[in-house]
Design brief:
Layout (H helix, E strand, L loop, with lengths): L20 E4 L6 E7 L7 E8 L1 H13 L3 H8 L1 H8 E3 L7 E6 L4 E5 L1 E3 L11 E2 L23 E8 L2 E6 L4 E4 L9 H6 L6 H11 L11 H9 L2 H15 L3 H33 L6 E5 L5 E5 L8 E3 L5 E2 L3 E6 L1 E5 L1 H4 L5 E3 L21 E2 L4 E6 L7 E6 L5 H10 L7 H31 L3 H15 L4 H5 L1 H12 L2 E3 L3 H6 L4 E4 L11 E9 L2 E2 L13 H8 L4 E3 L2 E3 L2 H10 L2 E3 L14 E4 L6 H6 L3 H4 L5 E10 L4 E8 L5 E7 L1 H7 L9 H9 L3 E11 L4 H6 L2 H4 L4 E9 L6 H10 L3 E5 L4 H11 L7 E8 L8 E6 L2 E2 L12 H10 L1 E2 L11 E6 H10 L4 H7 E5 L3 H13 L4 E5 L5 H6 L2 E4 L11 E3 L6 H38 L7 H19 L20 H27 L18 H21 L13 H19 L3 H7 ...
Parallel strand pairs: 23-35, 23-42, 35-41, 36-40, 40-41, 42-43, 43-44
Antiparallel strand pairs: 1-2, 2-3, 3-4, 3-5, 5-6, 7-9, 8-9, 9-10, 10-11, 12-13, 12-14, 14-21, 15-20, 16-19, 16-21, 17-18, 17-20, 22-44, 24-25, 24-34, 26-27, 28-29, 29-30, 30-31, 31-32, 32-33, 33-34, 36-37, 37-45, 38-39, 45-46
Helix pairs in contact: 2-3, 6-8, 7-8, 8-32, 11-12, 11-31, 14-31, 31-33, 31-34, 32-34, 32-35, 33-34, 33-37, 34-35, 34-37
Length: about 1200
């Protein structure tokens, strides 16, 4: 093993942080106890310091003792309350606990920890805690105190697995990351030589272990945490009450059902944790070789790595356990687990970098970075030097750790349905309190004993707020989740299924989502004498020259186990030349040779063949091109290039390929055809992907100079060679799905990193942009000297025909004429509103956001194509759409869509990569057919949740009314009657209501999303009135009947076997049954009610049993149910009760079917509410745009003004 000798190890600088806002007391001028961490980001935190208060602690524990531990339970649910009750606010520098408030107004409590004073702790993160060691104020300490090793203190707290350490100079907590954002690239390449074991151990105390540990709680702990949930506490208290009240049958059933439900919940929770732990554990249990500061190598556990360590990447590859920057050698890496891309990528060392002052950033220098969790397939090195890398991030700070954190701590979902459900429960609880007061009053007047009064009061609470309500509301979601699973769509956030039922807009990535992943070579357009020539569909027939050589050599292909791998486009391009590629030597040592890679035509003899038969040289000079150096593709540069040497040539060549606009700017003007832009546009608007090729002779460059030359000095003054035209076809499922969404009035938007014209063409082909609609491009320019920022609004030309392969064989002049004739002329004077779409690229988007923020809502409202968008810009577009009031969905297939997938209300990943697990939904089917499936199931689940919630609310209110009526007559239901209603009818029906499947197609109508909306409230209130009226009507009829006598009940006692209880029970039983049928609505969101065979059979059986109990009561059943046996001479009374039931059903049916969903009722509601403007902001903007037929000002330029007044100037298109 080689020795890397250096005198002192490099000390990395502390990560540069954004401007933090430390709040200052205006009276004293001193720092307050609150500050803002991560300002301006999604991770923004308001941090408040607290310190233990002995007096508060004493009062708190006294209160816990007095309340018999109830206060402890409440504090378990609200730890921030406990913090306020036991501690006092203080300066952050003294705090031992911090209260954190995130941007979603959620509160978190974290304890400040301290690393014990110990020798060897690195100075850059530490300052002495002078106060605690008797040296005066910490602010007065100087650096000389650092020599007192026993006083060195490192203070930090952990929030969502990230460490925040106390910075003594800034007097604030700062996130602890690694070596990114402040370390120069040249320092990473030259100054890091490893740490000693002592230095590593000291830094380990600062950064923590390099592991992504997913804690799997024990079954006992899971059980305790679950049981302490407020829902289970309420259910537990209710069950205890039922046992005390001798309602043992129902209580026993609830205990059994709750135990089963609890066991299933614990199993699923633990299973998910174990699955997640197993997924990330592959990088935790490895060993790595590190280089010490002495140059010696040592094998240690990967968990001991810290930022700044130098590790050796083995030749046979490995699974990376950290994020590290490659500093020597190359590595072929499979990043599929993070990006979803199956193609291995080549990582190069950061040593050869153009700008020595450039600071390393993990997002901008990905081609040098090996990410945790990725698989290094193999390494390649020069001579005998190890392939080494410098660790920059460890643990949860790595990219993989961030993805895992996104799963563990998802973004909270702001969905009105769940907010309204909580409000509804509070209203029901208020009603329960009122009912309890009435019940207590009635029983006290009746002379009931105190114990009985208390029991009956509690009984009313458990009736109005049923403990099974939360579980019943999840039934529809559970069934929908299972159906999605069978359809190949997996969900990690079940509440998102209901949200999917309200989706109004869906965003799509293009490549790999709407279109096929791969590209096919359509043709090559050569350039000779600054003029485009005819299209060549078979590049292998091209004469030997720069164009053919660029196609054969300008790529990053390599052989792994004898198989050529690399970018799919490079594979197609190279395969079209029909050349061969040779990489001499073994896979892991291919940089030992002077020229590692050689490409040649098949008819040219190889070096091996010449060595075997030297006489071949006499008859044929081999034509070989050696690839001396590669400048890999850079997304910021939008190009790649290679330095080559042709056998027998006296000079080297540089071949480049990349985005046409970028490459044209680097070429000599004399080599670029005059009609470059016209030809490029005519290909891109047909949906082709166009790549430009260029060449440059390097006459004075030697081999060693080529290895040290800076890229920017070589990639200029190129000669333009031609265009490579690739075809990316739509997936066959794309157009039908987009058509289905359009018919359902679901707006579709494209977010892609591809060329704008190509994206517009795909949008037209798939139906996002209808044939009769126009596309207006917003082309923004940044401010220049004496000229403000501007937006040029121009039409995108509309193609009406496509080039065929047969046409490509004609001369290019003829083809241009055909292309010219295939475009639709646009009459600029036409009024386009509202049938137009805006297309914008990433560059213009950034300019408009900065200089025209007032136009963003309009652009987003009409934007359909967002091209050349970076991952961050995709997130920005999704957030802007959400700000307009849209419920947004997103579908993508790569890691560049990960941010948008997480931000959207419903993100669907078509990739099984690890990066996609942060998405709420993952589809096994690699096309967008999953989108309408999710939306149908979401609508079905949402309607089911509404129906079940309304049913449970009516069930509670019906029983509440029944009990209050019976209390007035000194009676109540018997235990078996309660059991029949609560368990046999309600629980069974609520479970089966969610079994109805989703409707087979999407409709333009969307289900209601608010439980407190007027239609829902009108439905619930009207049904309550109708059911109460039916019960009161039956009771009044009973009282008015002559001959009905009632046995006197002793004062202070209840008799469940009475005329009143039997009549009310019989009628209410039918009410529970037919309301379940009425609330199980079918089309247009669910299949018809009768297709739910389980529910249908259940209701028929229950209805038949109730009918038998009413008309033909069996003595044994009546005795078991504690029913009053109505004499046969009162048969007419039974039939009259049946008439009441039928009438009750008809009135409820008319209200729910003909009135609730009627247009007339909606008009009445609008008139009553006097709704003048839409609630959703996007509807308001849409109305404003419809009133502005001249916006956007096509053919004109909009300038940014300092006084926020836009100035528009004519700029006609020629």
């Amino acid at each position: 093993m080689p020795v890397h000798k250096i005198t002192n190890s490099y000390v990395p600088p502390v990560r540069k942080e954004p401007e933090y806002h430390l709040l200052v007391d205006p009276n004293s001028g001193s720092h307050c106890n609150t500050t803002v961490l991560n300002p301006g980001t999604d991770d923004e935190l308001h941090c408040t310091g607290y310190r233990w208060n002995a007096g508060k602690l004493f009062l708190y524990y006294t209160a816990c003792f007095i309340t018999l531990g109830i206060l402890v339970l409440v504090m378990h649910w609200k730890p921030d309350w406990k913090l306020v009750l036991t501690q006092s606010p203080c300066k952050l520098e003294k705090a031992n606990t911090v209260l954190l408030k995130d941007c979603y107004d959620r509160l978190h409590v974290s304890h400040v920890r301290k690393v014990p004073p110990e020798e060897g702790l690195p100075n850059e993160y530490l300052k002495p805690d002078c106060r605690e060691n008797g040296y005066g104020s910490g602010a007065e300490c100087d650096d000389s105190f650092l020599n007192k090793q026993d006083a060195r203190v490192f203070r930090y707290f952990v929030h969502v697995n990230y460490r925040y350490y106390w910075n003594y100079s800034k007097q604030i907590f700062i996130p602890l990351w690694g070596l990114d954002d402040e370390t120069r690239c040249i320092d990473l390449a030259e100054n890091f030589r490893g740490y000693s074991a002592e230095e590593q151990n000291a830094r380990l105390k600062i950064f923590g272990e390099n592991s992504i540990e997913i804690e799997v709680p024990s079954r006992l702990r899971l059980l305790i945490d679950e049981v302490l949930n407020p829902f289970y506490i309420f259910q537990l208290l209710s069950t205890i009450y039922w046992f005390v009240d001798e309602y043992t049958s129902y209580a026993s059933c609830i205990v059994v059902i709750s135990a089963i439900s609890l066991a299933i919940s614990l199993y699923e929770t633990r299973k998910q944790r174990v699955t997640l732990r197993d997924m990330v554990s592959s990088s935790n249990s490895t060993e790595v070789t590190v280089i010490r500061d002495t140059g010696e190598s040592e094998t240690i556990s990967a968990s001991l790595l810290v930022p700044g360590d130098v590790i050796v990447i083995p030749p046979i590859g490995c699974i990376m356990s950290c994020d590290a920057v490659l500093t020597a050698g190359n590595a072929i890496v499979s990043e599929g687990i993070l990006t979803g891309e199956s193609v291995p990528v080549t990582k190069i060392p950061i040593s050869h970098h153009d700008n020595e002052e450039e600071v390393y950033h993990i997002d901008f220098h990905r081609r040098f970075t090996l990410f945790a969790g990725t698989h290094v397939i193999q390494t390649r090195y020069y001579e005998k030097t190890d392939v080494t890398a410098v660790v920059v991030r460890t643990g949860f700070s790595t990219l993989k750790g961030e993805l895992v954190n996104a799963i563990l701590f998802p973004k909270p979902m702001d969905f009105k349905f769940y907010q309204d459900a909580f409000k509804f429960v509070l209203v029901m609880a208020s009603i329960a309190v009122c009912g309890m007061v009435y019940g207590i009053y009635a029983q006290i007047i009746d002379g009931q004993e105190t114990e009985e009064v208390i029991l009956r009061g509690i009984d009313i609470i458990t009736i109005v707020v049923p403990p099974s309500l939360p579980a019943a509301m999840t039934v529809g979601t559970i069934y929908a989740q299972n159906r999605l699973k069978h359809a190949g769509l997996f969900c990690i956030s079940p509440p998102r299924i209901n949200v999917s039922g309200k989706l109004k807009l869906f965003c799509f990535d293009k490549t790999g989502t709407l279109t096929e992943e791969g590209l096919d070579l359509w043709g090559v357009v050569p350039v000779e004498g600054d003029r485009f020539q005819s299209v060549v569909t078979a590049p292998d027939v091209l004469p030997r020259g720069p164009l053919l050589a660029s196609m054969a050599s300008c790529h990053s292909l390599t052989k792994i186990d004898g198989e050529l791998t690399g970018d799919p486009m490079d594979l197609k391009m190279f395969a079209a030349t029909k050349w061969l590629i040779e990489e001499p030597g073994s896979d892991t040592a291919q940089y030992n040779t002077l020229v590692p890679t050689v490409v040649r035509p098949p008819e040219s003899p190889s070096a091996a063949e010449l060595a075997a038969d030297p006489e071949l040289m006499l008859f044929q000079v081999p034509y070989e091109i050696g690839i001396v150096r590669q400048f890999h593709f850079s997304s910021s540069l939008q190009m790649m290039s290679v330095i080559t040497r042709t056998l027998g040539s006296r000079h080297m060549d540089l071949y480049a390929k990349g985005a046409p606009e970028k490459l044209m700017s680097l070429c000599l003007d004399s080599s670029v055809p005059d009609d470059f832009h016209e030809v490029l546009e005519r290909f891109t608007i047909q949906g082709f992907r166009v790549i430009a090729l260029a060449h440059k002779k390097l006459k004075k460059l030697q081999w060693h100079q080529a290895q040290r030359a800076k890229r920017g000095e070589l990639e200029r003054e190129l000669s333009f060679l031609g265009l490579l035209v690739m075809q990316n076809t739509l997936k066959p499922e794309t157009t039908p799905v987009i058509s289905e969404l359009r018919k359902a009035v679901i707006r579709t938007v494209m977010l892609t990193g591809d060329n704008m014209h190509t994206a517009i063409s795909v949008a037209r082909d798939c139906g996002m942009v209808e044939p009769e609609h126009y596309v207006i491009m917003a082309v923004a320019s940044p401010p220049e000297e004496n000229k403000p920022a501007s937006i040029h609004w121009e039409y995108a030309i509309t193609p009406t025909a496509e080039l065929s392969d047969s046409e490509s064989s004609d001369t290019f002049v003829a083809e241009k004429e055909k292309l010219h004739n295939s475009y639709q002329e646009i009459v600029l004077e036409q009024v386009i509103a509202p049938c137009y779409h805006i297309a914008i690229n990433g560059r213009s988007w950034t300019i408009i956001r900065e200089h025209f923020p007032e136009l963003i809502p309009k652009v987003v409202m009409k934007g359909t194509v967002f091209a050349r968008m970076s991952p961050e810009q995709k997130v920005q577009v999704v957030e802007e759409l959400q700000d307009l009031g849209y419920i947004v969905g997103m579908c993508g297939d790569g890691a560049n869509d990960c941010g948008a997938l997480k931000t959207a209300h419903a993100g669907i990943s078509l990739s099984e990569a690890e990066a996609s697990v942060a998405s709420p939904f993952t589809s096994k089917v690699p096309n967008i057919t999953c989108v309408p499936i999710l939306m149908r199931e979401g609508r079905c689940a949402l309607v089911t949740s509404f129906g079940v919630f309304k049913y449970m609310a009516l069930y509670s209110m019906i029983q509440f009314i029944s009990v209050l009526i019976l209390y007035a007559y000194n009676t109540n239901f018997g235990d078996m009657e309660f059991l029949y209603i609560d368990l046999v009818i309600t629980t069974t029906v609520a479970v089966f209501m969610g079994y109805t499947k989703s409707y087979h197609k999407l409709v333009a109508k969307r289900p209601y999303g608010s439980l407190v909306g007027i239609p829902t409230l009108f439905s619930v209130i009207s049904q309550i009135v109708v059911q109460a009226g039916a019960q009161i009507g039956v009771l009044l009829y009973l009282i008015s009947r002559p001959g009905i006598t009632r046995d006197p009940v002793p004062k202070g006692e209840f008799d469940p076997v009475t005329w009143e209880s039997t009549a009310i029970f019989t009628v209410s039983s039918f009410q529970y049954i037919f309301l379940a049928a009425l609330f199980s609505k079918g089309p247009p969101f669910r299949k018809p009610f009768y297709t739910n065979y389980l529910l249908l059979a259940c209701l028929l059986l229950l209805g038949s049993f109730s009918l038998v109990v009413l008309i033909w009561p069996v003595e044994k059943i009546s005795d078991f149910m504690e029913l009053y046996r109505i004499p046969d001479e009162f048969m007419s009374f039974r039939w009259m009760m049946l008439c009441f039931v039928v009438g009750n059903f008809l009135i409820s049916f008319i209200i729910e079917v003909f009135i609730i969903d009627s247009k007339l009722l909606k008009k009445i509601f609008r008139l009553c509410c006097k709704k003048r403007r839409p609630k959703n902001r996007y509807k308001v903007i849409e109305q404003e745009l419809n009133a502005l037929p001249d916006w956007p000002p096509v053919n004109e330029v909009t300038y940014a003004q300092s006084n926020d007044q836009d100035h528009t100037a004519d700029d006609s298109i020629s």
